[in-house]
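[agent] plan:
  1. take the single chain provided in the ticket
  2. run structure prediction with default settings
  3. attach structure tokens to the ticket
  4. add a short note for the reviewer (M.T.)
[agent] executing step 1
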Amino acid sequence: MESALNYSITPLDAGRAYIGRWEKALYPTATITLLADTACEIVAYQSLNKTQEQTTTFETVANEYFTYNLTLNLPYIYFSVRNPTSTNQTLLNFSVIYKNAYLPTTIQGSSKIFDFGSLTGVNGYSLSVNLKLSSNNITFYGKVSGATDLTIQLSDDDTTYYDSQYKLEIAEASDFGFNLPATVAIKYIRVKSSADVNCDCFINYC
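[agent] step 2 finished; step 3 output follows
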């Protein structure tokens, strides 16, 4: 059953939000879908009494379909969608479908975390990616302009990062690609380069 109270196709201006309405959770699972041309923040609010709330937050990537199967454990639910960027949207498609079945949670997306047009710097690091919900498959790929070691760094708060045991040693200018083990649970992730090279690096996760 598709929600009529938590649904929007009206693009959001910069810094603005769509706020849905409380509804009775008659099914155990809500499938959240969103496509927008800016990054978005989705918040699911569950409540026993519409006063005290339990929240779950999702961050989405611009121009990438986002889908998540949320288990509902309280009787009331509503959602908000915020455009936290400085860009007005021209596309927003947000919907919630309630289902009478428990489904495995899935989250997927992709990000370009290093830009080939600029040097990384020695021990320079990429943009970070938010993986708070943990992913079953995380793939890095791209190209570098010279020899370097690419080390995966992990963080619990997106402020303090730690080197992991996952490192790719690259001997010369080349393409590269590698996966992290499916059992890795990560909140925030980024890549550090040991040498000052041009690097074009993408991360895909699902």
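[agent] step 4 note for reviewer: The radius of gyration is 19 Å.
[agent] ticket updated
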